[in-house]
Amino acid sequence: GEMRPLWSVMIPTYNCADYLRETLASVLAQDPGSDVMQIEVVDDHSTKDDPEAVVKELGRGRVNFYRQPENVRYIKNFNTCLQRARGKIVHILHGDDYLLNGFYKKMGLLFAQYPGIGAAFCRQIYMNSDGYWHNFSPLEQSESGVLSNWLERIASEQRITTPSIVVRRDVYEKLGGFDSRFTYTGEDWEMWVRIATNYPVAYEVQPLAVYRQSTLGSLTQSSIRTGKFFQDLRKADEIIQSYLPNYIQKRMASKISKRARETYAFWALNSSYQIFTNTGDIKACIIPVKEALKFGYSSLVMMKLSRLLLKIAAYQLKEKLILSGR
Question: How far is 59 from 36, CA to CA, in rounded Å?
């Protein structure tokens, strides 16, 4: 019986206060008022900065702040965001990402036009750690509206960054929170597939969410170098495949799984080359290669591996020629 605002904008943070000002400013610029929108920062016990000070400076009493009594890691912090959310539509916005004007207006229109949808997301912009835009996500369809064949597409590959998607509160209540079996990645992909198996999903063609990609020294990049990142992706694929036979033909489920495994094998091989070009450490780039092969030995994966080895050999030869002065 509690009166709820339309929106809950929940901002999980951990040692990212330098970016939080931009995040909060992008939300406050679209603020329709406290009766319509809850805005709250949920901090996972930051140790290197003071997000509460940023909230007080920019929020001026408008933005709530909650600090975990101890570090609980990001998935539990995400679920704390869901538990503390009071709105009918929940938006989890990373504390180092931001939005463009019109995000909440466009997302709200999709829910008004298509009341049966469980979630909606927009096209995404990717920026580097310094905040420079460098890419856009692929266009899912030419016009805004409910996506067709969305389950098959999202089960084949993670296509959504968390800041770009908003979810009805009762969807989370029915399906549960983010899966705690993951450590470094995969919990978002699994959640978006879980939603797609139960509800239609809508899409806004205009890019309105800006996602900051990981730096070389980040937790994500560290987990890529150790292989644990790709182990989580294989776990996500296994969980996702268990959903599919209930909704699509078994043959199609097999094809979807193959596409997913090839996609992440390619990612692992690309990561291997990036590690080599950044560090020159052959041993370090072997770990992602091994993880790539654990996704399978399809002809496309083996072709990609052959090209990777040739590129590494060519890079080494070029470096030797430069050092010899030729």
Answer: 16
